[in-house]
Amino acid sequence: MVLVEGDAENILLPVFAKCLGRSFTEYGVSVVNVGSRGLFRYGRIFQRNDGQLAPVKVACVADRDITPDAAKAYAPKTQRQVANNLPKYESELIAAQKIETQIASIKKYDGGVVKTFVSEKWTLEHDIALAGYGEEMHVAICFAKKLSNAVKELNGEERKEVFREAKAEYQEWAKTESKQSLAARVYEPLYEKEVSKALTAQIFAAIIISKKQSPLGICKSLPPYLVAAIEYVTEALPAPKADA
Questions:
Q1: pTM of the entire structure?
Q2: pLDDT of 13-42, one tens digit each?
Q3: Per-residue pLDDT tens digits for 83-110
Q4: Three-class HEC string of the chain
Q5: Calpha distance 12→59 (Å, rounded)
Q6: CA 42 to CA 232: how far, in whole Å?
Q7: Which end of the chain, N or C, is less packed with Cβ atoms under 10 Å?
């Protein structure tokens, strides 16, 4: 079982798993979208007090939610954070020695068959863009924006034009921006809630499926924490403990 925070993870993880040759359907893995960080409380349901393991592995997939310094231009502090001098960016949290504390709080309910997999940098879409699918994520976001604002269904040529323009824009950004800054810039419309994460995920999934990459190619282009979560829930459970 995989517990996730939102619609995007709910849509994308089964797609990634299938592309990696570990179809959740074939492995009998369910994805449960709890709609919040409260997924950890649900994970505790599968922890037993008798020392035995529940008969299912449970992966909690969580955002690290630590804003990279490269995203300062795209994710500015709130007025409350500024007024109270609160840390928001990674370097500030490192200086305040809060990184490990924050990650530990996310994983504090781990144990037994329950294991939490935390994004390496910020959030799902940002980390996907940073890992190797920046252009594809930008195209998906641009296409989702266009669909959301369209007064009528886009025809084939209009769809192709959206894809061409988005790819050209991304490639122009890539000429001058660092990999980190580029990922933050791609993620900005989702951070600002200018476009639906669910719709973006649906379009992004279709793009990834159409690429027909090998499992190795997919693995190299995804954030490691997602690959690790998928591998965890599709591996066999350890043998049960013998009765004393």
A1: 0.91
A2: 999 999 999 999 999 999 999 887 766 666
A3: 988 889 999 999 988 999 989 988 888 8
A4: CEEECCHHHHHHHHHHHHHCCCCHHHHCCCEEECCCCCHHHHHHHHCCCCCCCCCCCEEEEECCCCECHHHCCCCCCCHHHHHCCCCCEHHHHHHCCCHHHHHHHHCCCCECCEEEEECCCCCHHHHHHHHHHHHHHHHHHHHHHHHHHCCCCCCHHHHHHHHHHHHHHHHHHHCCCCHHHHHHHHHHHHHCCCCCHHHHHHHHHHHHHHHCCCHHHHHHHCCHHHHHHHHHHCCCCCCCCCCC
A5: 15
A6: 18
A7: C
Q: Do 60 and 228 touch, CB atoms closer than 8 A?
A: no
Would you kindly state where each structural domain of the chain is located, as residue ranges? Answer: 2-233
- Token pair belonging to 26: 């074939």
Which residue's entry shows tokens 């594809």? 136
For the record, the structure tokens of 221 come out as 């282009």
> Exposed, middle or buried by CB within 10 Å (0-12, 13-18, 19+), for 9?
buried
Q: Which two tokens stand for residue 174?
A: 């890539």
